[in-house]
């Protein structure tokens, strides 16, 4: 699919990119010399940025059932900048060993954490982990990521560095811990770590 898109790129009247010039000036300037590029990012609802469009509050849909009430109620009870938010998007899959190391790392840190683990991945959580960490952690199958990242309790984001998650965190000023898994995520992690110097890599 991606290769097919690039094969017809010269036929396009416009190429719209979910980025902005100030974030990637060299890339945008270079690509603009080759194609009719227009930056339209960040494509985050106005409510989280400048609030110019009062009705622009969300993306309008989700692939998964969200645990909105549980997530937000729990976050509201946490101190400011105290929560480690952990999510690897809708497609990335951690190996069982990675999942176990992450779980025990969260437990050992004694930090408050909100960890999104899709139902298809839940079997990889170490036995007893959820119960052992229930006083300072919450594990859910999905949550409203923008609301979570915008919440004052969130202090950092352990992420796979998918572009949407990266751009959301950057736009909302949330520090990142990068744990890329596949596709563009390694490149994104390298860029935000070495070029923008905005994250640490796990």
TrEMBL record:
A GO molecular-function term, please? quercetin 7-O-glucosyltransferase activity
Domain of life, source organism: Eukaryota
Which Pfam families is this protein grouped with?
UDPGT
UniProt keyword terms in alphabetical order: Glycosyltransferase, Transferase
Q: Which family does it belong to?
A: Belongs to the UDP-glycosyltransferase family.
Question: What protein name does the entry list?
Answer: Putative UDP-glucuronosyl/UDP-glucosyltransferase
Source organism (scientific name)? Rosa chinensis
């Amino acid at each position: 699919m991606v290769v097919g898109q690039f094969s017809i790129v010269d036929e396009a009247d416009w190429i719209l990119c979910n980025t902005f010039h100030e974030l990637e000036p060299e890339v945008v300037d270079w690509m603009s010399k080759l194609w009719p590029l227009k930056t339209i990012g960040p494509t985050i609802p106005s409510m989280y940025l400048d609030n110019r469009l009062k009705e622009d509050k969300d993306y309008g849909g989700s692939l998964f059932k969200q645990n909105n009430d549980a997530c937000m109620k729990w976050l509201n009870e946490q101190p400011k900048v105290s929560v480690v938010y952990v999510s690897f998007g809708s497609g990335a899959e951690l190996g069982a060993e990675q999942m176990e190391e992450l779980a025990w790392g969260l437990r050992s840190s004694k930090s408050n954490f909100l960890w999104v683990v899709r139902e298809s991945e839940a079997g990889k959580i170490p036995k007893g982990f959820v119960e052992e960490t229930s006083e300072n952690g919450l594990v859910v199958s999905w949550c409203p990521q923008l609301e979570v990242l915008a919440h004052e309790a969130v202090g950092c984001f352990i992420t796979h560095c998918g572009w949407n998650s990266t751009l959301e965190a950057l736009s909302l000023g949330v520090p990142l811990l990068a744990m890329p898994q596949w596709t563009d995520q390694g490149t994104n992690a390298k860029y935000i770590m070495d070029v923008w110097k905005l994250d640490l890599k796990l």
